[in-house]
Amino acid sequence: MKFAMKSLAVVTCLLCASSAMAQKGETVKMVRIDPLTGLLGPVGISQLKGYQFFAEKFSGAGNPAGVKFEVTGIDNKLSPTESLNALKAAIDQGARYIIQGNGSSVALALTDAVSKYNERNPGKEVIYLNDSAVDPDLTNSKCSYWHFRFDADTSMKMEAMSSFMETQKDIKKVYILGQNYSHGVQVAKYTKETLARKRPDIQIVGEDLHPLAQVRDFAPYIAKIKASGADTVVSGNWGSDLSLLVKAANEGGYTGKFFTYYAGVTGTPTALGTNGAGRVYQIAYNHYNMGGRMDKWMYEFKAKYNDDFYTGATIRIFQTLGAAMAKAKSTDPLKVAAALEGLKVDSFNGEVEMRKTDHQLQQPLYITVWQKADKKYPYSPENTGMTLAPLKEYPNYVSSTPTSCQMKRP
User: The whole model's pTM is what?
Assistant: First the structure.
């Protein structure tokens, strides 16, 4: 009887240990739904390579849960409708972790679809990991328990950007140019609000929204900017919409400043060339000259793919997922989502926190300027001989903005 009881106790302990480490060696399937074709395809392709590169780095012994990450991509052609079809296909393939970032209109559609799917399918939940879609509504009025954002939202970036612009006394007239969808509208809104608060003397001399990823010649917009007398342009454009805008500015002889969100993204460094030196700025949560672990990874990535890595949220997604799965002792999205709330991890530039209230990552932001690469800031994106050099770091508490999210938890 004693032997039987001891055997039962041993078996129970082994089962507990097995349950605790059930995720070790398990493959976590992740699908990234983003454009892989069209004008914005090069951005999505570069980012997917980043996910596959870091999935290998952070698999197995690379994360505290010991899981293996596997990432594949589905082309959504930047369409919310195509994205919903892709979501269904990903779930059918067994993926329970969905990644997306390019386009807040897509992000809003996916957030709604994932929430409804999880409500209808208890026990088969899916988590949506947002690496780049920055519409503040996603963590405010449209917040969802199943959505976690790893980029800083538009309002956070504008809070930091306007703090820097506040100190630039030569800025007197600003023109706002953006893409005509939720992100572009929000950039315009927060530019006007923050500048009115911090630099009420600055005039907004023009504002334009153009179709997303459809404009091939920005010369008419540059003509309007020049005619307005603007000394500075604020733009949330990304991908081809920023590359072609900068190209038109260079060709059209516009010599004012550009304050951007995505100057370092695929195609834009080449478009900038040397003409943008000292007058093109970027606000972001990482840059090309971070030092430490990030430098090592970036040079490895460039050697392997002849491409530049710039979406640091990729790294943070793997870091936080690994930590959350270890904390939850499970890869079950329901348990992992709970473990992600309020989670803090040591990332490539210090501690970051997934705020429990709205699932918005709290992180430092950086203002950088386009200049010639040198010994201090040597990394040259797209082999331009130029780089984004850091000017100012804004810690978490500066870039953080309040939330109106009323989270509905399962």
Answer: 0.92
